[in-house]
Specification:
5-stranded parallel sheet, globular, Ribose 5-phosphate Isomerase B, Chain: A, binds D-ribose, alpha/beta, about 140 residues
Length: about 140
């Protein structure tokens, strides 16, 4: 599976660790920045990553900022992006199984590395259940 990742300055410090986690799970990961701890605006990176995921069918995105809130708000403005702010393995599992989320968001200031690892592992092994959830997901777009 191919993943894209982007962070703002608040999460720049853990980006390499998250890339290692995704690679250790057997996936490819493409880094869309930011590339330094200098202050940036999270929507710029959320939009860049959302466009990349939409242009590459079947790919996933990972967006990390301080809380994960700003990244998820911005990414969800894109038709076809379902960005889920996850706090633990359970929310990651439900985001994939019930919501068919294609962009994983979390907050560097909210979750620690152990939780991030369990979020990524669970996300990568969970498929969309379809069935009754497919109709609900289709109703998300207005
Ligand atoms: C940056 O200070 C912070 O506002 C940002 O990383 C994010 O948490 C916004 O939602």
């Amino acid at each position: 599976m191919k993943y894209y990742i982007a962070t703002d300055h608040a999460a720049f410090g853990i980006k390499e660790r998250v890339k290692d986690i995704i690679r250790s799970l057997g996936h490819e990961i493409i880094d869309l920045g930011t590339n330094s701890p200098d202050r940036v605006d999270y929507p710029d990176f959320a939009h860049k990553l959302s466009n990349a995921v939409l242009a590459d069918e079947g790919s996933f995105g990972i967006l990390i900022c301080g809380t994960g809130i700003g990244m998820s708000l911005a990414a969800n403005k894109h038709k076809g992006i379902r960005a889920a702010l996850c706090h633990d393995a359970y929310t990651a599992q439900m985001a994939r199984a019930h919501n068919d989320a294609n962009v994983l968001c979390f907050g560097e200031r909210v979750v620690g590395l152990g939780v991030i690892e369990s979020i990524c592992k669970t996300w990568s092994k969970t498929s969309f259940e379809g069935g009754r959830h497919a109709n609900r997901v289709a109703k998300i777009e207005i």
